[in-house]
Design brief:
globular
Length: about 100
Amino acid sequence: MDLKDIQNQNLDELLNKEKVVILEFYTSWCPSCKMVGMTLEEYEEEHDDVFILQVNADEYKEIANIYKVTTAPTMFFIYKGEVYNRHHGFIEVDEIEEIIDSILK
């Protein structure tokens, strides 16, 4: 999901879902970000227990600043509004599964 229409006030609502939310900050010029985006799409297709939000850190600097994002890609694993894990750089599907499993246990 791209955040073209998102506003700061409805971000909180999206992050408080009953699913694990993966909030990914990326940039359009970052090759690793493109690879992570494909990995997240692959994961989301096979798992309906996650909700993925992708934020272009260059376009939404105010949101990136709230989360103190300094590198891309950066992912936050959030459950019921609480950040459980933060990951920088490329991530494999099995790593995503491990993180989500640890959150839901």
